[in-house]
Amino acid sequence: MLLALIRHGQTDWNLALRMQGRADIPLNATGRAQARAAASGIAALAPWNLVVSSTLGRARETAAILAAELGIELGGAYDELVEEEFGDAEGMLVAEVRHRWPVRDTIPNAEPAAEVGPRGLRGLERIRADHPGRSVLAVAHGTLIRRTLAEITGHDAADYPKLDNCSASLIEADASGWTVHTAGGVPLAELLGDAVA
User: Fold this and answer.
1) Span 42-89, pLDDT tens digits
2) Which domains does the chain have, with CATH numbers?
3) Does residue 11 have a known ligand-binding role?
């Protein structure tokens, strides 16, 4: 099974560098344009069968735009693909969060970082079970995607770069499990170098 994890399009909070997490902030006009523009590049990666997403509106709308642009099915929404819960930091400027809580796992009421990657991987397995043998686009969120890729490869999420809005990370599943081919469009070997071996 071939799957591409797509980060949603831009929101006003992305633009303002605010922590979004589970806050259901909609796409802005730029985000909608990004989704439309990304479709051709995503189409060039593989012939896709359908698009699924997280349950949050910004991911769902990005998925709907991609489905319309690519002429493919808009599938379901998966709770496992929602963004990391940032607790008391949600809505705050990223710079302020880093100043107040230099260690991310000390943010009050936040989801433990170590739980995010395994949750994302459970979502991938649900998608795989729901759509066997199909090529699927899954629209999700930057931190969720990075932590899920790290869970698959065994690397630290910090090894993965910040993902651009509407960037694609290509992964594949076979009988032995999941393999990461690219992160945000960059080949894994190029991104992680010797750490991949």
Assistant:
1) 999 999 999 999 999 999 999 999 999 999 999 999 999 999 999 999
2) 2-13+26-86+115-196 (3.40.50.1240)
3) yes
